[in-house]
Amino acid sequence: MEPTNLILIGILIILVLLIFYFISVYNRLIRLLNEVKNAWAQIDVQLKRRHDLIPNLVETVKGYMQHERGTLERITEARNLAMRPGTVSERAQAEQQLTQALHNFFVVVENYPDLKANQNFLALQEELTSTENKISFARQAYNDTVMNYNNSIQMFPTNIIAGMFGFKQESFFEIQDAREREVPKVSFQ
Question: Of 61, 71, 180, 187, whose CB neighbour count within 10 A is largest?
């Protein structure tokens, strides 16, 4: 075989390997992006569950907390704001406001011993606590997935392919306000 044919075959093999590499990296980036979308969907499911529980909670306590109408209205307003579509950052900020409104609500509940003993309230409070835990786990899984995706599109050489195909960084679902990082202290005893 002639040396020029060997060189052409070598170049062809290198080109085929590069094409397979590009396809592999592109498919990996697509998989990671879909994992980010799936992780966000898991948060969204838990947030919907949270949003659905709030009207039941408000309705349960209305009779007990007649003088706390403003507290109940703030929860409802925060819930409505949190249910609006938006970016991950906007949704995170709205959810923080809802968390703060719920925290304030549970502080006020301390003044109503009959309410704290109500079985419907206790069941809803347990559901909300469970949902908050699920949101926390889903948020952690989402942030881990976003980190893997963002690392992939920023690291060489995949950043070249990511740039060629317009892959953009995703936002973390993170707490902006340092006060929100504190664990709320709620006691029903």
Answer: 61
C-alpha pair distances (Å), 15 with each of 2, 20, 25, 137: 20, 9, 15, 44
Q: Which pLDDT score, from 0 to 100, does residue 188 have?
A: 47
Give Rg (Cα) of the chain: 25
Query: Around Cβ 10, how many Cβ atoms within 10 Å?
Result: 10
Residue type, 58: V
In a domain, 72, yes or no: yes
Question: How many domains is the chain built from?
Answer: 1
CA angle 106, 96, 133 (to 5 degrees): 65
Rounded mean pLDDT of 83-110? 90
CB 61 within 8 A of CB 72: yes
- Supply the CATH number for residue 75's domain: 1.20.1440.20
The answer to whether 120 and 53 are in contact (CB under 8 A) is no
Worst-scoring range by mean pLDDT, 31-35, 84-88, 165-169, 183-187? Answer: 183-187
Position 5 in a domain: no
Report helix, strand or coil for 85: coil
Burial of 98 (0-12, 13-18, 19+ CB in 10 A): buried
